[in-house]
Amino acid sequence: MNTHFLNTLTKITHNNKYTKWYILLIQSRKSRSNSRKEAKKLLGYVEEHHIIPRCLFSHNETKLHLHHLNKDDKNNIVYLTPEEHYTAHLLLTQMVTKNSNLYHTLLKPVLMMATKTGSRSTNKLVGWVKRNYAISISGENNVAHKNRIITNGSTNKYIPKSEPIPEGWRAGKTQKPESKPRKPRKKETKPRKPKPIRTGKDAPAFGKSWKLSDETKRKQSINNATKIPFLSMLHNKKQYSKSHISRFFPELKPYL
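RESULT FIELD:
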């Protein structure tokens, strides 16, 4: 058995009891079978597990230690039952610092394997779900077991294998053409003509005298008065303290 990948994994993880358990699990299962065919014959349903998870080959904290290795090397793959696979990923999460970025990366596969039962999933439950799902889509339960797919060039459909292919149809299926992303329409904008600057006699207000009405003059005087703090106090009819008034108008301090 090639232990190069296990030795490399121990360099980037903590030396604790979970690491030892993980190594023992991988070594025993690696010696049990060397190929999927052999493992399937022995155990039935099996799953492929990467000894060093593929996510670590691109992680910032570990990729420098793994750049010389191939993540899909056969020595990095072991075939496990669903229970063992779930347990292996749980052990991996305990082999690094808890709540670190690396911890959350290794926790994602565990969350993907866990079923949404409303309670914490166990490896037995995960194994039961995966085995029953594999049975439900294999053999006579598979839609392609008794049927075959045919196409007329535009649509696909299943027919029983005992029935002949109708005229105008053929075996196989037609792939739908990939829809091209629509190009955004460019709005046609007409260039604006610059407005001519009119000065002197050409100006619209040239030679005109602007006369304000008495009402407009009264409103302007009120607006200008409210910009002065003391007059604003009188205009708004508010009560202010003596210190507040003397701060703005020190010349009025003797009369307060």
